[in-house]
Amino acid sequence: MQTRALGTQGLQCSAIALGCMGMSGTYGPSDDAEAIRTIHAALESGVTMLDTAEVYGPFTNEELVGRALKGRREKVIVATKFGRAISDDGKVAGVDSNPVRIRRVVDASLRRLGIDAIDLLYQHRIDPAVPIEDVAGTVGELVRAGKVRWFGLSEASAATIARAHVVHPVSAVQTEYSLWERDVETEILPTLRRLGIGFVAYSPLGRGFLTGRAAPADQTENGNYRRLDPRFAAENFARNAPILDAVKAVAAELGATPAQTALAWLLAQGDDIVAIPGCKRVDHLRENLGAAATALTPAQRARLSAAAPPGATAGARYPVEALKAIDRAAAPSGATGRAG
């Protein structure tokens, strides 16, 4: 498995990492024993980063990852996230990055994960009530205290990233990116490359759409997140079918699966990009990892890009309320913030 650098602060991990969110029921029923087997198989296959968050479950996903890590902590980059408002009864409502809460969440995450330090700590969503400078400063204090190693942001705008980076170096930014969600190409990726920050692509398979195995929302079981994703609504699902058709056509030429083809396209967009496809079964894991050995020709990459240009996907990527938590402030002209 190829290793890639995320940013210029020394963080490195496998080109394909493992997103663990789906192991806690996000996409229908999951099995803890199979999930742990999947994590172990990933580590044995050269995957070096596991991605989780306090809000997954909530809390239970970090506990699951912690159990899987026992005796295997060495050489694993553990990434988790703070910043969602979670009530005592486990209900998620809005965002909360108050510095006092950040410190409390980090201590709780360390306990659940059973580790001494979080390798990569992301702010899950920007909190408009807390200046990003205060968030970056708080994470910087945690780095100096030895509880965190690297700082990341998730779904942050180019302007917010630049402001945070001035206060404490941002090593990675995580945002949705795939053939059917390419908005990051306009401002986010250019900003990260200017500042020396790595990019982590979540949902690189379009929440399963690009595997060819997903069904429209009305054919999906209750409790599966896809029932809430506007892109999976029946009319949008049908309008998005030509994107999948293009992936399938290239996959047939390569003798690969659609999932491997879609991931190979993403990895070819830059050696500063790491993909974190989520899965909860060993067979799907092995399929995804096969993308590392799947090479697209320039012509095939161009065909895929042309089949799914930015903005071509039908349907918003989140329901209306969830979209409100996405930070999309415009980047200042010529922003060149540098970490202090």
Short précis:
The protein contains 11 helices and 12 strands.
How are strands sequenced across the largest beta sheet? 3-4-5-8-9-10-11-12
Overall mean confidence score, pLDDT: 94
- Any idea of the CATH class? Alpha Beta
CATH topology: TIM Barrel
**Radius of gyration using CA atoms only:** 19 Å
Q: How far do the termini sit from each other?
A: 33 Å
Write down the overall geometry: globular
Strand content: 15-25%
**What is the level-2 CATH architecture name?**
Alpha-Beta Barrel
What characterizes the major β-sheet? Answer: 8 strands, parallel
Class by SSE composition = alpha/beta
Portion in helices: 25-40%
In total, the number of domains comes to: 1
Number of E-state strands: 12
- Give the CATH superfamily: NADP-dependent oxidoreductase domain
Which stretches are low in confidence, meaning pLDDT under 50 for 5 or more residues running? 330-340
